[in-house]
Amino acid sequence: MKLELRGITKRFGSLLANDHIDVVVEPGQIHCLLGENGAGKSTLMNVLYGLYEPSEGEILIDDKPVYFRGPGDAMAAGIGMVHQHFMLVPVFTVAENVALGAESTKAGGFLNLDDTRRKIKEISDRYGFDVDPDALVEDLPVGVQQRVEIIKALVRDAKVLILDEPTAVLTPQETDELLDIMRQLKSNGTSIVFISHKLREVKAVSDTITVIRRGKVVGSAHPGASTAELASMMVGRAVSLTLEKAPASPKEKTFQVKDLTVIAPNGQHTVDGLSFDIARGEILAVAGVQGNGQTELTEAILGLQDRVHGSILLDDVELVGRSVKEVLNAGVGFVPEDRSVDGLIGTFSIAENLILDRYDQPPFAKGISMSPAKVLENAKSRIDEFDVRTPSGLLAAGTLSGGNQQKVVMARELSRPLRLFIASQPTRGVDVGSIEFLHKRIVAERDQGTPVMIISTELDEVMELADRIAVLYKGKLVGIVPAGTGRGVLGLMMAGISAEDAAGADHAGLVKADTPATETPPADTTDAATAKRRGTSSAEGGDHA
């Protein structure tokens, strides 16, 4: 089936999200839409899937115009979509989720799932999905849940499958398996629209690449194009994709976490007995799939969690039990994972956001009075130093692009002497040009002798910045390994395999070597990873994944 988007434009009030976009997806083709977060890729696909009505333009299937009033029309036309955030009901079985919206009944009005189970097994066997139709979705690993989403589309005879940032929540092994699944789907005639900003994956699997920047198509590329060329198309200028940093020179260990446990309201241990330390002048990067305790760990350090046990020492001072303000005043700088919710007040000016944690301290305040001149003077200095693209510090922070908002948060936290710097997802939703700048500032803080902790779900970022890497899985510390540890080993650790067993699999040749970005990464075939996905690891006595 040939799919064409012709002149698609989508406006939200005064915001122009898509600007006369033309894209053609040929039958049996993997067509990548490449662009940074906020470029308009997902909006375009929501138009294609019938979730949004285009302001202008048309959709053509096999050269005939079609009109979608909703996702049901898109599915009936042979278009399926796997959203970045899965649309599954956790307490339903796989079969119930697949049948949802297209239910059939038998005598007595009872739901008839036999035909759905048969179709799931047929598709699962064809593509090696290994999905049990009667398994509860909430019990399945994230990678298997994604396969359920793909099965939902294939059961409805999707000829074009849209995958929106499909690797955002996957381990490296699960990512490789997904890319292999995409190749199998293509070989069977399914067209795939692959939305991503990850150059390694785009180059590995795409047949053709359309680059979108600020809502417009800025060009097309062949997957053989260099990463530097693709990055410059995304950003609009040349960028360096390699961080140059000197080896760390760690000094005394001034930050120590001992037997830290965080208990959720439901009694679950979201952080479970963590112990680690960070020396002055080193970066400890915390890796792991999102949702394995990273958020709760940083909140416990900041004093945002109530039920915390164990010890958090900074310069031999206990932080557990202290308020957020007391923690910040102890010299902790913190960049939260969601800048729009926790890092900025969008309606406040840039200048005001730059002093949110020091508004009541000299030189910005004297007694109960603030000094607007000092606030603006500070803003001008920080805007220049951190290259925040804005005509004035008086503009509302919410009017800035994502990358510039992140620079404001980073500038605020790094504009005072620190005893500890924590950055959670420091470059999420940031273009590659801003990533280059922010990474250099993080390394510069390390080189000043500050202990630095980075929490990131982007494995490339972890490997780029880290002097040591700590891996979390289900709130527990799987292990701490040195910088330079291979992606395959780290991927196994992110799936819960111990550092020793992951290294053993690597030494035994069971872990595939890291794949250069210019080559096609192989699907993972390690015994350990396969066992972990199916919930039975000989290395861990049957611990469910």
Query: Could you give a short account of the major beta sheet?
Result: 6 strands, mixed
| Number of individual domains | 3
DSSP strand content: 15-25%
- What would the principal axes of the Cα set say about the shape? globular
> What order do the strands of the largest sheet run in, or round the barrel if closed?
6-7-8-3-9-10
CATH architecture of the largest domain: 3-Layer(aba) Sandwich
Low-confidence stretches: 515-545
Radius of gyration: 25 Å
At the first level of CATH, the class of the largest domain is Alpha Beta
CATH superfamily label of the largest domain: P-loop containing nucleotide triphosphate hydrolases
Give the oligomeric state. Answer: single chain
Q: Helicity range of the residues?
A: 25-40%
Structural class: alpha/beta
Structure summary, number of beta strands: 22
What do the pLDDT scores average to? 86
Which fold name is given in CATH as the topology of the largest domain?
Answer: Rossmann fold
* Count of runs of 4 or more consecutive helical residues: 19
Distance between the termini: 38 Å
Pfam families: ABC_tran
Biased composition (Low complexity): 513-529
Protein name: ABC transporter ATP-binding protein
InterPro entries: AAA+_ATPase (IPR003593), ABC_carbohydrate_import_ATPase (IPR050107), ABC_transporter-like_ATP-bd (IPR003439), ABC_transporter-like_CS (IPR017871), P-loop_NTPase (IPR027417)
